[in-house]
Write a structure and sequence with these properties.
about 50% helix
């Protein structure tokens, strides 16, 4: 169940993430987002993040799902595959490093809060199945 074929979706992942995975997930060469790349990067993040969400949580166009009551299983995010949630953390690292405008910071904080909420939900589901 934790093999490479059962991971989070890859078809909409940000191009920078695909490059990082293709380079063997190394720190070198250092991947950097430029200010002009941020709007496209943020948009690709939203599409990818939405795509990996369970159906009960998907919210069209925002990239951040509804928080609150968990209305089902966490689906593919509980089967992270070879890259899994490490990919999410890597993308957040690049985004956080590249922030230069306050509106970028606000969007980033919302994403970090959403990712934390999702990971707490996944952890609870995994603990309940032990």
């Amino acid at each position: 169940i934790r093999g490479p074929k059962t991971g989070i979706p890859t078809k909409l992942r940000p191009a920078l993430l695909s490059k990082w995975v293709g380079n063997g997930r190394t720190r070198s060469p250092r991947l950097v987002l430029s200010d002009r790349d941020m709007p496209q990067f943020i948009e690709s993040w939203k599409l990818w993040w939405n795509d990996m969400q369970p159906e009960w949580r998907k919210k069209q166009g925002t990239g951040v799902g509804d928080k609150g009551e968990v209305k089902g299983k966490w689906g593919c995010v509980t089967r992270p595959g070879i890259n899994g949630l490490l990919s999410v953390v890597a993308v957040m690292s690049w985004w956080g490093t590249a922030m230069v405008r306050d509106n970028d910071k606000d969007a980033f904080v919302r994403v970090v809060e959403d990712v934390r909420w999702l990971m707490e939900g996944v952890l609870k589901e995994l603990q309940d199945t032990e």
